[in-house]
Amino acid sequence: MDVKWGSLGEVAVVSFGATVGVVLFFALGVRALAGRDAARTAGQDGTALTAAAGACFAVCAGAVLYGLYLIIPQFH
């Protein structure tokens, strides 16, 4: 059995980058929701921040669904 170290390293780098990306978008979504609450407390409209949070959470959901698509062979 031979290990292809280059391929293993590539998978490690891509999985690390995807993980950091999903965590970053989720954190941005939570931050946008917190900003929305602060804006509403200040008497402003928080619609843009709500839309930004929804977009961030949609990116996270898309990444999770794509990962499931790649893992489950019946979806191919």
UniProtKB/TrEMBL annotation:
Entry keywords, A to Z: Membrane, Transmembrane, Transmembrane helix
Transmembrane segment boundaries: 12-34, 46-72
Domain of life of the native organism: Bacteria
Protein known as: DUF4190 domain-containing protein
Naturally occurring in which organism (per UniProt): Actinacidiphila epipremni
